[in-house]
Write a structure and sequence with these properties.
The complex is a heterodimer of chains A (110) and B (112). With 110 residues, chain A is mainly β. Chain A has no helices and eleven strands. In chain A, the strands form two sheets. In chain A, strands 2, 4, 5, 6, 9, 10 and 11 form a seven-stranded mixed beta sheet that branches. In chain A, strands 1-3-8-7 form a four-stranded antiparallel beta sheet, with no helix packed on it. Chain B contains no helices and eleven strands. Classes of the chains: A mainly beta (110), B mainly beta (112).
Chain lengths: 110, 112
């Protein structure tokens, strides 16, 4: 079964702090995604990538950077965290039409 | 703006009833429509999907009805069970290489 592993699972940071969320997939999928999930908004795409070194902008990219270092690893960076970035973040991968999600990282910015 | 819309936001049905979850979309280039099921503490997981060349897709108790002309689809869950209690997301995408856009979700509660 496809596997997407996120770390950490929970994170609390202060306003203005730096945060890195990590994701690793062992599916050999080309595509990887970062979504945020918020009540009333569903899942919104932040950034995605179709291979190592590639980065594409999603629908809500402001305040976020991402980097795909290898086929397996995709990172989401918040360099100046703000309370509006408090959310549940999901990493996902796909090799076709089905998208496989990790268990999520709950980020709180205080 | 929200390109994929879902209603209702929440739905409660009795065990054994049919739950109907609705979805609509804006972009006429969308041609693939998956539904994902999400339990608390988990990521969404693919439940069932349909392409725009079909008007119905059935998998056990789960059926998608698709109306291309009206840009609407619905997920019917027959003989609902308490284990079906979850949040359901409708998604849509176009040709290969484009990403899936998700709706706002419907939280379903099935009462025994």
């Amino acid at each position: 079964e496809a596997a997407v592993t996120q770390s950490p699972r929970n994170k609390v940071t202060v306003t203005g702090g730096n945060v890195t969320l990590s994701c690793r997939q062992t599916n050999s999928h080309n595509y990887m995604y970062w979504y945020r999930q918020d009540t009333g908004h569903g899942l919104r795409l932040i950034h995605y990538s179709y291979g190592a070194g590639n980065l594409q902008i999603g629908d809500v990219p402001d305040g976020y950077k991402a980097t795909r270092t290898t086929q397996e690893d995709f990172f989401l960076l918040l360099e100046l965290a703000s309370p509006s970035q408090t959310s549940l973040y999901f990493c996902a991968s796909s090799g076709g039409t089905e998208v496989f999600f990790g268990k999520g990282t709950r980020l709180t910015v205080v | 703006q929200q390109q994929v819309r879902q209603s209702p936001q929440s739905l409660t049905v009795w065990e054994g009833e049919t739950a109907i979850l609705n979805c609509s979309y804006e972009d006429s280039t969308f041609n693939y429509f998956p539904w994902y099921q999400q339990f608390p503490g988990e990521g969404p997981a693919l439940l069932i999907s349909i392409s725009s060349v079909s008007d119905k897709k059935e998998d056990g108790r789960f059926t998608i009805f698709f109306n291309k002309r009206e840009k609407k689809l619905s997920l019917h869950i027959t003989d609902s069970q308490p284990g079906d209690s979850a949040t359901y997301f409708c998604a849509a995408s176009g040709n290969s290489g484009t990403y899936q856009r998700f709706g706002t979700g419907t939280k379903l509660q099935v009462v025994p």
